[in-house]
Specification:
The chain is α/β, with parallel strands linked by helices. It has a domain at about 1-155 and about 180-210 and about 255-275: Rossmann fold. It has 9 helices and 12 strands. Strand 1 (about 1-5), helix 1 (about 10-20) and strand 2 form a beta-alpha-beta unit. Helix 3 runs parallel beside helix 4 (about 120-135), helix 5 (about 155-165) crosses helix 7 and helix 7 crosses helix 9 (about 275-285). The longest helix has 22 residues, at about 70-90. The protein is globular, with a radius of gyration of 19 Å. Bound molecules: NADP nicotinamide-adenine-dinucleotide phosphate (NAP). NADP nicotinamide-adenine-dinucleotide phosphate binds near residues 9, 57, 75, 146 and 147. Belongs to the dTDP-4-dehydrorhamnose reductase family. Keywords: NADP, Oxidoreductase. Pathway: Carbohydrate biosynthesis; dTDP-L-rhamnose biosynthesis.
Length: about 290
């Protein structure tokens, strides 16, 4: 039995779909089994008897975390510590998701797993603290750092762009932050691969879409592909701007491209080019009758 914690979030819902389609047995929980309560976690674990735990729960409001770092730390550090203690007490491997925000964004070459961490935001600090707790408590873990996540469930950049492109004649998008978008399906594909292969190559891994782009270039592709599929119904000019022109409470990393070499070597898992995943995602939106 696989226990998906945080099953009502963007990733947790996609993972639940993917596990169902693959015919794997799983149980999902969200806020009703509070990760801040060890007792609640233990009680539920006694009913589930999990063979795997996948933690998709987190505090993910990046800008709001600047004002409420303690709340973010509770979930992203203490919550993870509770799950890790549960996992070690039951000797169950734990898959946990982390983020490119643990880096300072100053690199100009793809970031390997052992690159120095220097988070510049409250969210990044709390996610790094969660990683550190997990490493200290339970070695049988897979920490997967990902970036620029989007998918059919939850608020995300692709859906926001489609909505803006349908309602405005012009949008401006930052062109000085480089990374790679990650479709939730690609991440859940890796999670299923790790579970199926069941290898003891525990540790920290990076996963994002293959290739790289800026948010502006990503938006241009969303527009081009959206127009082709009539998901964008009228002309909209997409113009570049700088991060300074688009201030946010939490400063975004200028560079967060993740190296995928380690994950490809360990699990022979090759993420698709980000443009191919975007096309598949937009096709899936068409199939479900367009989300927006
Ligand atoms: N989204 C991105 O762009 C991105 C990028 C890199 C890494 N990540 C990481 O990927 C993972 C999944 O992200 P996501 O976007 O799917 O997150 P999400 O949509 O915010 O989902 C998180 C889920 O955890 C739940 N939760 C909150 N507090 C809880 C508690 N005390 N006990 C149990 N569950 C609780 C949330 O409920 P509520 O909604 O009610 O709060 C929500 O259903 C996270 O670890 C995140 O840090 C995300």
């Amino acid at each position: 039995m696989i226990w998906v914690i945080g099953n009502k979030g963007m990733l947790g819902r996609e993972l639940s779909d993917h596990l169902s389609e693959a015919g794997l047995s799983f149980i999902g929980t969200d806020r009703e089994v509070d990760i801040l309560s060890s007792a609640a976690l233990e009680e539920r674990a006694a009913e589930i008897h999990p063979a795997w735990i996948v933690n998709c729960s987190a505090y993910t409001a990046v800008d709001k975390a600047e004002e409420e770092e303690e709340a973010a730390r509770s979930l992203n550090r203490d919550g993870v510590a509770h799950i890790a203690k549960l996992a070690i007490s039951r000797k169950v491997p734990l898959i946990h998701i982390s983020t490119d925000y643990v880096f300072d964004g100053s690199s100009n070459t793809p970031l390997h797993e052992d690159a120095p961490c220097a988070p510049q935001t409250a969210y990044g600090r709390t996610k790094l603290a969660g990683e550190q707790e997990l490493r200290t408590i339970w070695p049988n873990h897979f920490i997967i750092r990902t970036a620029w996540l989007y998918g059919r469930y939850g608020k995300n950049f692709v859906d926001t762009m489609l909505s803006l492109m349908n309602s405005r004649k012009e949008i401006t998008v930052v062109n000085d932050q480089t990374g790679s978008p990650t479709w939730t399906r690609v991440l859940t594909g890796l999670i299923l691969t790790i579970i199926k292969q069941d290898k003891a190559c525990y540790g920290t891994y990076h996963l994002s879409g293959e290739g790289s782009c800026t948010w502006y270039q990503f938006a241009r592709e969303i527009y081009r592909m959206g127009r082709e599929r009539t998901l964008v119904s009228s002309d909209c000019a997409v113009t570049p701007c700088s991060s300074e022109q688009f201030p946010t409470a939490a400063k975004r990393p200028a560079y967060s491209l993740l190296s995928k070499e380690k994950i490809m070597h360990a699990f022979a898992y090759q993420p698709p080019q980000w443009q191919d995943s975007l096309a598949s995602y937009l096709d899936s939106l068409l199939e479900q009758g367009a989300k927006q």
